[in-house]
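Supplementary Methods, section 5.1.

A reviewer requested that the exact input to the structure prediction be made available. We therefore reproduce it here, unchanged from the version used in the analyses.
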Amino acid sequence: MIQKNETEILEQNGVPDELVERAYRDLARIHHWLGDTKWIVRAIRQDPLPVHRILDVGCATGLVLKEVGRRLGVEVVGADINPHPCIAAPVPILQADALRDPLPCADVAFSMHLGHHLRESDLVYLIRNVGRFCRRFILLDLVRHPLPLALFRLFVAPFVCPIDAEDGQRSIRRSYTPMELRRITASALEGTDGSFRLSVAPFYVRQVIDISYANAGQYSGTKVSRAKDTSEALRQERDSAEALR
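The structure derived from this sequence is encoded token-by-token as follows.
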């Protein structure tokens, strides 16, 4: 299946907040129906080390992050390059470019359907940057394959809003194959002692890269202070930019 990098509707400017809210609400339901949220919760629950804080990279409105935090009973924080504070869930969300900006420190980070939005080189930057602030990164994404595309058209698209029905198909067509994702991750971790596991669900409904970073310390009070300092610095930078407009 040939990869087609088509811009999705939710990536475009000017989509009204009420449509964005409906689309992300339906997306959270899709993650629930397909078992994506359950998969993330189970993977974090089985972590061999204590987990005190979780970071959702590319969290959008934070609905999935809220549910993950509720199920696990731990502190959560999100990061997104284009947050929607007026329609966001009641969880802390930091505006940040996850490829290059400092991120909130956490024990475990995860992302839902973020990888296919990035070019290969940008996905490498993402994996490396998350490793500076977390000891583990679970990247869950779609698989570019005719089977999940057909299943989405038949069993998901008719029951969600038109934006998700269209964007879902574009997402599958622009996503990576397991072989491609394995190669990209290996390239990102090259020269480090980091390791990863790749798993692919039946019918190719999802693929997951589970990365463990070497020499990544456990989340601590020191890292809490560092995360707060990062958030404050980014806030001041945004305030300065607004003042110059």
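Residues 17 and 86 are 8 Å apart (CA to CA). These observations are discussed further in the main text.
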